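To illustrate this point, what follows is a protein record of this kind.

___
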Amino acid sequence: MNFESSDTDKTEAASPTTVDSDIPLVIAPASNFTLEMLNDAYNQARADYLIAMPMTVAQLQKYIFTYDIALEHSVVAIEEQQPLGLAMLGVRLPRTWITRLGILQVKRRRGTGQRLMEALIERSWQLEAHTIILEVIKNNAPAHRLFCKLGFSPTRELLVLHRSPEASIPAAPIYAMRRLTEDGAVTALEHYQGTPSWLNEIPSLHHAGNLEGMEVHLQSGDWGWITYQRLPSQLGRLALQAETADKEAVYSALLHALHTAYPNHETHHENLSADDPCFPALQAFGYTVAFERIEMYLRQG
């Protein structure tokens, strides 16, 4: 695929370096290229990955908007006008987030991934970020080694969960349920006691849209809330919080309310912290772990 830049000022924007070859490697801003070019490069680079996560152009455009991806600070590696790989940078200062790193299989083990990462780290510090965040799929040893080499430290394990609409709905304590509007859901999330990942922070939820919530009150006086994104056939981006002592009962009531209200919806939830206290309740309602990620941080100084 010819990967000519759509930006006529490519020469000034790109910065050449070298790998184990006499042909120069060029690191160029992703903003130099069309979304079609970036999407083709991304899908080709990740075709053989453990979890490839292919995208369409429309999905890539939505991804960029939802997660505050700055294409002018994201990068593409090019050799002889051919893409070797790319990596994207989300910007929510004083933090940045590295995502969608992909290298063509035939071009790996030549330092391309490290060059892309170093470019994003440099851009992050230039933006005066204090912290750089990324996630790596658990058991992806080569990527994990690279990130550790660059100074990233693991912070926690994150779970990607799936629930089929055929899963059973266990009994729950008697409760009264009140629906939350999008504004009500955001207000609840502003008091969330957990630590959401970049995917589930309030800016991501705002951009993703279709945010709703429910509040349940048990006869015991215990209560709590759940927020979620509702699409025509899928639920996702869950956040659960028990506001009183009997957390297990509240989580059970919240999930019972959710899945009786939407019995035919599949549920896909990314990046639940592995130590989240609601995880056992999710398992009881049929949520299974599709795969796991390791969240890693690099802090300035």
